[in-house]
Amino acid sequence: MATEKLSFKNRVQQGLKNFGPAFFIIGYVVGTGSVTSMVVSGANYGLSLSWALLLSCFFTYFLLISISKLTIVSGNTLMFNFKKAFGKPVTIFIITALLVSIVSSVIGVMGVVAEVAMEWISVRTSISFLNAPMVAVLFTCLLIALFWTGKHENFIKAMSAMVGFMALSFIATSIMVVKETGTNFIEFFPELPKGDNAGLVIAGIVGTTMAGVCLASRSILVQEQKWGVEHLKTENRDAMSSMILTFFISLAIMISATGTLYFQGIKVVDATDMMSALGPWAGDFALTLFTLGIIGAGLSSIFPNLLLFPWLIADYTGTERNMKRPLFKFLVVLVAFSGIIVPFFGGKPVWILIASQALSPFIMPLITLFLIILLNRKDVMKTFKTSLWMNIALGATLVFNFYMLYVALNGFIGFIKTGI
């Protein structure tokens, strides 16, 4: 009997190990950035932008399985393959663009986390000596200390549990919203207002799902899993499960914001405006639940962001990802302290965060094009030829990426003009 139990436990552990990259993708994508984009989208436009979420998840699936296959067959990570095939300058350009995305994301996320935390402190407690800069510094020092000591696994698990509870709460709220608003579901899809800042929000939705940094890290994680060609079906299932869960969790957040904010005419301008997205169905606990969820999502998404730049450098050079190297430690601390910029110098963290996600479409066409070229090279893929259907799917993904580049460009122009 003990052997059977042990065998079952081993099977469960192996299953969790096999789907490790999927959990990373979900944990990274469904973070503060995703919550912010979906809440703003639902509050301002109902479900009118749900098509962007659906298409970004659909096309990201093909990118995930393609990057995984390239890594498994070639034995090299994405950036190393890019450097080998296309040269150092263009690969350094891609890494630099991803670094801009990483830093801007950390700036926006910590700004939202600090603002939401301060709102909860001012409403729920009598503490008066804290302010947003102090909260940001405290969270930043906590993350650096966890990285420095290497004791971050349990912390990340705790943060992930808080995010998971918030995600379940959004799913429950979305069901209640549809059931109890007494509104025809067609009314959840209003016509988009012309001349509004919808372009930036669309680019933000796509950017948080089809994140260039997340796709690059997918290659690193697949290599660390030591998957071989016999695991190609496993990585396909892994990619599909991550995108399906990402879509439904994100859609639930959008539906919740539609029912609780859009129908009441509440626009989201500041991070604190989002705190009603779980009420009134979550009751008095909504404020605390949302705050805990945002803090959990924020810190659990900032932490991998701190590691990603050193990972990309190791990826590019083909060296071991040894985070004890002095250079890597310095880079982690530097990126971490970029998060205190908004709390100290001001700004609209919600729109800074959405803008940071809207940067991803600027680099995705190049990444997708390089990926298509590599997948069709015999010297790289050997006998594992890419099928006609996959080439068609990736071609459609490339067209979608170019369209999103156009949308993002218009969104930034509108963002600058309106000065939100």
Reading off the top of the CATH hierarchy, the class is best stated as Mainly Alpha
Count of the separate structural domains? 1
How many DSSP E strands?
A: 0
Describe the global form: globular
CATH architectural arrangement? Up-down Bundle
Task: Provide the structure class.
Answer: mainly alpha
The largest sheet is: none
Number of helices: 18
H/E topology pattern: HHHHHHHHHHHHHHHHHH
Q: What is the end-to-end distance?
A: 64 Å
Mean pLDDT: 81
Low-confidence stretches: 1-6, 11-20
Strand content: under 5%
Any idea what the radius of gyration is?
Answer: 21 Å
Helix content: over 70%
At the third CATH level, what is the topology name?
Amino acid/polyamine transporter I
The CATH homologous superfamily: Amino acid/polyamine transporter I
Subcellular location: Membrane
Membrane topology: Multi-pass membrane protein
InterPro entries: NRAMP_fam
Transmembrane segments: 21-43, 49-72, 92-114, 126-148, 155-178, 198-221, 242-265, 285-314, 326-345, 351-376, 388-409
What does this structure look like?
The protein is an all-alpha fold and 420 residues long. It has a single domain, classed as Amino acid/polyamine transporter I, CATH 1.20.1740.10. The protein is built from 18 helices and no strands. Helix 2 (20-29) runs antiparallel to helix 10 (212-224). The longest helix has 37 residues, at 88-124. The chain starts with a helix and ends with a helix. Mean pLDDT is 81; it is low at 1-6 and 11-20. It is found in: Membrane. This is Manganese transport protein MntH. The chain crosses the membrane at residues 21-43, 49-72, 92-114, 126-148, 155-178, 198-221, 242-265, 285-314, 326-345, 351-376, 388-409. Keywords: Membrane, Symport, Transmembrane, Transmembrane helix, Transport. Pfam families: Nramp.
